[in-house]
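Propose amino acids for all 137 sites.
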């Protein structure tokens, strides 16, 4: 499958009782790749995932009731590794190659998302071989 240019992040407002189902519109390969954040902070709250992880088929079910003052966010976070080993010679099944490319695209989407919220440094802020300049308050 080719990955859509869909953000691997989805947020919902609280006011949901235990057992609320949250659709997960992004693709993921393992349930462990789906992380839960409450108000922007990683959460250890337990949730269950149903569906196979293909686009639009998965859902997360809450085991905690959240208030209307909380934002519930699900994000795909894949490890920075290469879990698919391709042979040095010989044939590679197309679906294996496609999955390897999809995994690399997931990693690139993750980096792109992280860079949007990362603090920025401009040329001249960091001297060659140096560290950040202290900014006066």
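Proposal:
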């Amino acid at each position: 499958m080719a990955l859509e240019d869909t953000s691997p992040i989805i947020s919902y407002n609280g006011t949901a009782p235990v057992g609320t189902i949250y659709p997960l519109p992004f693709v993921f390969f393992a349930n462990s790749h789906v992380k839960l954040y409450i108000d922007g902070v990683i959460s250890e709250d337990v949730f269950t995932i149903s569906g196979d992880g293909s686009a639009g088929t998965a859902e997360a079910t809450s085991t905690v009731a959240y208030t209307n003052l909380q934002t519930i966010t699900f994000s795909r976070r894949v490890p920075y590794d290469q879990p698919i080993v391709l042979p040095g010679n010989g044939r590679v099944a197309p679906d294996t190659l496609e999955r390897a490319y999809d995994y690399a695209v997931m990693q690139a989407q993750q980096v792109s998302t992280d860079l949007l919220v990362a603090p920025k440094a401009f040329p001249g802020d960091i001297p060659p071989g140096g560290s950040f300049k202290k900014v006066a308050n």
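The beta strands are 9-13, 21-24, 34-38, 41-42, 47-50, 58-62, 71-76. DSSP finds one helix and seven strands in the chain.
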